[in-house]
């Protein structure tokens, strides 16, 4: 089975301080980075990011999350796999803000819903607890949506 790994960071490369206004998300499969996302405090994606994973938990599929990286979009798309506890998870990119005419999927695989959601949510929580620097984000991006995160965490433990 494919091993998904997610990492959030505000650290600059080579640990040379912290990024101002940016949080990076790295998605790896079997220890190989397959996609990097640069989230911006000008267009904070974390409300819709958490909604996306909550939709997966509630089986509200298909669902998607568009993350604007100030120039391109990374789009997460989750689709139902009939008669299973799996979800088809797609990572796509596009430049056109208004249509999907240039949408190109760069990764697609099936995961158990709980495994997919738990990996993203657990790593997001770890980042917020261990590395997150609010002074580098919240002046423009506002506070992180903690109540949504806590609700998803509660659902994952039930």
Q: Can you give a write-up of this model?
A:
With 158 residues, the chain is of the alpha+beta class. The protein has one domain (4-140). Helix content is 29%, strand content 35%. The chain is built from four helices and seven strands. It has helices at residues 46-57, 113-130, 138-141, 146-157, and strands spanning 4-9, 22-29, 32-40, 63-68, 73-80, 86-94, 104-112. Strand 5 and strand 6 (86-94) form a beta hairpin. Helix 1 packs parallel to helix 4 (146-157). It is globular and about 45 Å long. The model has no long low-confidence stretch (mean pLDDT 94).
If you compute it from the alpha carbons, what radius of gyration comes out, rounded to the nearest whole angstrom? 15 Å
The number of E-state strands comes to 7
Number of domains: 1
Pick out the low-confidence regions. none
- Mean pLDDT over the full residue set: 94
> N-to-C SSE series?
EEEHEEEEHHH
